[in-house]
Amino acid sequence: MAFCLVLQLYYTLFVHLRLLRQAPVATPVATKPLSVVICARNEAPNLEKFLPAILTQDYPDYEVIVVNDRSWDGTGDLLEQFAASEPRLRIVTIGENDKFRAGKKFAVTMGIKAARHEWLVFTDADCLPASDQWLRHMQPPVNPQTEILLGYSPYLKKSGLLNALIRFETFFTAVNYLSFALKGMPYMAVGRNMAYQKSLFFKSKGFAAHMHIPSGDDDLFVNANATKHNTKIRIEAAAHVWSEPKTTWLSYLRQKKRHVGAGRFYKKKHQFILSTQIISQLLFYVFLVAAICLPATRYAALGVLAVSLIVRCAIYPRLLSRLNCGGLRWWFPLLDPMLFLFLTFNGLIAIFIKKVQWK
After folding, report:
1. What are the backbone angles phi and psi of residue 33, rounded to the nearest 5°?
2. Strand, helix or coil at 254?
3. Lowest mean pLDDT: which of 119-133, 135-149, 241-255?
4. How many whole angstroms separate alpha carbon 254 and alpha carbon 276?
5. Cβ pair 219, 188 in contact under 8 A
6. Which end of the chain lies in a sparser environment, N or C, as judged by fewer CB atoms within 10 Å?
7. Burial class (CB in 10 A: 0-12, 13-18, 19+), 240
8. Closest of 27, 65, 46, 21 to residue 128, by C-alpha
9. Same domain, 30 and 145
């Protein structure tokens, strides 16, 4: 248990604390043109609700490309209505093909090919920018060496335990990938809020190395191409993108199963670091319960728990507030063990259930 605590404190003090110390930046002045790419499959209600906020960003030169991927719910008609009054909206339509099984990576590729500008910003049809300054924060950085920007996308607050767990898991995932990027070891991103150069996509042959994997258009691409020199992060509140959360346990399990499936194709060093983190945290709680049940080790175990809580509660509640999850900070001691139990359970499910798909 003490060894697991040491590992736990390493991630807390030497990785995640970097994110808390990251100074916010002022809203930059718009400089270069950019293309926003959105893939939509039967997303008519979400596009009607969220697309206007993307089309009215405070940015002088940008286009919005929506890839209508084999939709049958009226998505195409709705996009045509938007395009009639929004000159910056461009539509790419993918039709059904019995001889070719398309997926999200194919849709993303079509959107990238249609983009007129070098800098590409990605989000989803069910996403809402936190402000009209989103694109100013996600625009091409001043340093030309930066090819990838990692953003943050929290889920909207709903009632219930499932929503609390979803938001906490999203927070923990973001703290991890953003902190490791600051440490010089970027390993993933979320497609709801990220950006990279069009030339990087084609230089690295796009998704060719993992086109056979249904998920991973965001994290696997970043895992393969991000370095400590070409990757930066954006965590300012105006740069966040809100997203609609799953509302049932089954749909959430399916979503996370896709993510776990993609994680098996991360670089080996990233797999080792992430597996060590999850396993050590889970074992910490297992050993803690066992030690508390034994009279001879009960007080020592409580002392170790106290050290863990004091250190972690000095950092994570503040990060929760900074990353728009402040309402969860009082539930941190309860959600933390729940999360690692869930991640372990989901990992076991992913071993036995292989089939996943997009929409």
Report:
1. -70, 160
2. helix
3. 241-255
4. 24
5. yes
6. C
7. buried
8. 46
9. yes
Residue type, 238: A
Residue 152 is part of a domain; what is its CATH number? 3.90.550.10
**Rounded Cα gap, residues 319 and 337, in angstroms:** 18
324 shares its domain with 206: no
DSSP state of 62: E
Q: How many CA atoms lie within 13 A of 72 on its CB side?
A: 3
Number of domains in the chain: 2
Res 258: pLDDT: 66
How confident is the model over 72-83, as pLDDT tens digits?
989 999 999 999
The pTM of the full predicted model, rounded to 2 decimals, is 0.91
pLDDT tier at 338, thresholds 50, 70, 90? confident
- Please give the structure tokens belonging to residue 269: 């060093």
Output the CA–CA distances (angstroms, integers) from residue 157 to 124, 154, 201, 239, in the order listed: 18, 9, 34, 18
Residue 133 domain flag = yes
* Cβ-proximal residues to 146 (8 Å cutoff; 6+ apart), any chain: 140, 230, 231, 232
CA distances from 300 to 292, 296, 311 (A): 8, 8, 17
Output the CA torsion 69→121→15→337 (10° steps). -30
Task: Please indicate, yes or no, whether residues 228 and 99 belong to a single structural domain of this protein.
Answer: yes
7 and 31 share a domain?
Answer: no
Helical segments of the chain, H only:
2-11, 17-21, 44-55, 75-85, 104-114, 134-138, 161-182, 198-203, 219-225, 249-263, 268-293, 298-313, 316-322, 332-352
Structural domain for 223, as ranges: 25-173+183-248
